[in-house]
Amino acid sequence: FDPRHYQGTHCYGFPKTGPHRLRFLLESVKDLRETLKKKGSNLVVRKGKPEDVVCDLITQLGSVNAVAFHEEVRELL
């Protein structure tokens, strides 16, 4: 979870993620973790800037061959 998604936007000051969306995200992550555990896997969940968290995870794991990601689409104003 990137803390920047829970701060006000630069244009209007509204949070990018309000309480209802946050609840949906938390419930979705919980459900995904439970589903993965039933299949013998797990889900790593971290809080922080992705560029820092991913780097730390790679260091902890040691032998990482590839990392896949997507970039958030940003509105042009």
UniProtKB/TrEMBL annotation:
Protein name listed in UniProt: CRYD protein
Native source species: Sapayoa aenigma
One GO MF term: damaged DNA binding
Biological process, per Gene Ontology: photoreactive repair
Keyword Amino-acid biosynthesis: no
A Pfam family recorded for this sequence: DNA_photolyase
InterPro entries referenced in this protein's UniProt entry, alphabetically: Crypto/Photolyase_N_sf, Cryptochrome/DNA_photolyase_1, DNA_photolyase_N, Rossmann-like_a/b/a_fold
Keywords: Chromophore
